[in-house]
Amino acid sequence: MLNDRQLRLLLDNLTSAVLVLDENLALCYLNSAAEDLVAASSARAIGLPLEEVVRESRSPEQALRAALATGEKYTVRRALWFLHNLEECTVDYSVTPLTDLGLLLLEVQSMDRLLRIAREDALLSAQETTRNLVRGMAHEVKNPLGGIRGAAQLLQRELKDLGDDGLGEYTQIIIEEADRLRNLVDRMLGPRKPVRLQSVNVHSITERVAQLIEAECDGALEIKRDYDPSIPDIPADSEQLIQAVLNIARNAMQAIAENIGLAEGELTIRTRVQRQFTIGRRHCALVCRIDVVDNGPGIPEDIRERIFYPMISGRAEGSGLGLSISQHIINQHRGLIKCESRPGLTEFQIYLPLAND
Question: Is 201's pLDDT higher than 90?
Fold first, then answer.
């Protein structure tokens, strides 16, 4: 038979959170996983009503008391819990009445990581679909463009031989417009050359971007650096990664300039290390995170889910290609790019593996 110490040791080594409530719905036990989940120690939480430690979007009190009275088990899916430290988490939990003891056993599983992986899977799938669509469209457009340009050049020569310089002006327009469309398609495809990964200090990337933005706005925009100096070198193509981060920072600068003015704007470039992160289905022990944060107007809600698609822009003068190119470059680095935006705060997060596996 296991003694009390052994039982507690067993429960403390479970990855699922276990909470025990008494007949008054006050906490009388939490294992280590539960302490981590609710961000409170047993010494602080035991004796407190459950709703003083975690608050659910829909109060569970009635259901908990009914389970205690009837002895019937039940399970709640995707419950939103609000913690005392103002954070929130999504959980699944099962309630098992221990009728003889007058207690309720709650087995809780955090769903945040699984939900995040599912969202990132959908994002990566959408990004891959977009790239395939653009590649297919590019080939369909560039082939006839080459024919049109070639025919216009032949016609231009014929007209020149005939001494008709007046019509030659129109053939030149055809050639120039064909070149413009070809360049547009090339930009939609992103960088042609594959990434050449080398050991790079991430802050040489962010500093270069900050310097370019400061030069473009003549120092009118306040740029804050919030760097983690302990980040080791990352495997990256320095030139292409600068382009990816610069596209995001330039978009932020232009949105600030057009809406609140550079003098009122603020751009923050932040670097951090994140542990045990999943990019798609690939687990990374360590990733480098680059955040580009601005206090501009935010991304319009109707395009927020489509900003990484080509030709989608929230600015009247925008080409809608910068973020698409950034996404392509980050994906070539086997990384992930995400965005969260609301009026007054837009944050792009770039995740890059710290090991070239």
Answer: yes
